[in-house]
């Protein structure tokens, strides 16, 4: 299956990172892959372009040891290879693969794909970057594309993180799966195959781990500081569970766990994924982690 034109819908951190990673991959540059980044307003597109520019500038600074001319040429060459559009339908009509990276909301994703299904060529593959929603549920919005509908779950920050979870439903064709795995390989990333199960691989293991850390502290068994130190020095993790939760976003963590607790296949009503009281309390207070300046830790303190 040939993929030569890729559109990414959603110009936030994830969408911009995916577009950058495809446009900058030497193997895909050699194949002359066309990349389009789409969002609903020019302001959002401009922000996506800014995200890519800043990321490329950091890479160029290291790559060219501060050589301004070479750095600028590097950044400009990749940015200029990405098309930026506000018309998702028009972009879809010229795409072999459409990757969705919008808000983590089932209704919003279904509406987007329902609209794109009427505009995209019959051969086009649809993929969602969701981290927690069932791919099969999102795919229900399409009429005759479920054998070409998969999950492509990238990790933040996309340009640096090597892993991509390739999520296959029961209906996904082998040809499409092979094509997506080759694309991921050409991006210089590692694709792992996973069935359409809640949380896929990483989040299915990671989120319950973070929740149990919170419950451990709620029971008074240890402090959050000691839990983080223990997991970094004892298990070799780069961040402890409380540092990680603050990095991910406490609202995001709560959203995932509430969805699993209420409707996750095999997880409904289980304590394993029940949102802990202290997590719910912090989110209710607007303490969402690093992005709000406070979460389990206070990031406003000097």
TrEMBL record:
Reaction equation(s) it catalyzes: a (3S)-3-hydroxyacyl-CoA + NAD(+) = a 3-oxoacyl-CoA + NADH + H(+)
Molecular function (Gene Ontology), one example: NAD+ binding
Domain of life from the UniProt record: Eukaryota
Assigned GO CC terms: mitochondrial matrix
Domain 3-hydroxyacyl-CoA dehydrogenase NAD binding: 6-197
InterPro entries the UniProt entry points to: 3-OHacyl-CoA_DH, 3-OHacyl-CoA_DH_CS, 3-OHacyl-CoA_DH_NAD-bd, 3HC_DH_C, 6-PGluconate_DH-like_C_sf, 6PGD_dom2, Mito_3-hydroxyacyl-CoA_DH, NAD(P)-bd_dom_sf
Record-listed CoA binding positions: 55, 62, 131
Pathway: Lipid metabolism; fatty acid beta-oxidation
GO biological process, one term: fatty acid beta-oxidation
Keyword tags: Fatty acid metabolism, Lipid metabolism, Mitochondrion, NAD, Oxidoreductase
List of residues binding NAD(+): 10-15, 39, 104, 109, 131, 156, 291
Family: Belongs to the 3-hydroxyacyl-CoA dehydrogenase family.
Protein name: 3-hydroxyacyl-CoA dehydrogenase
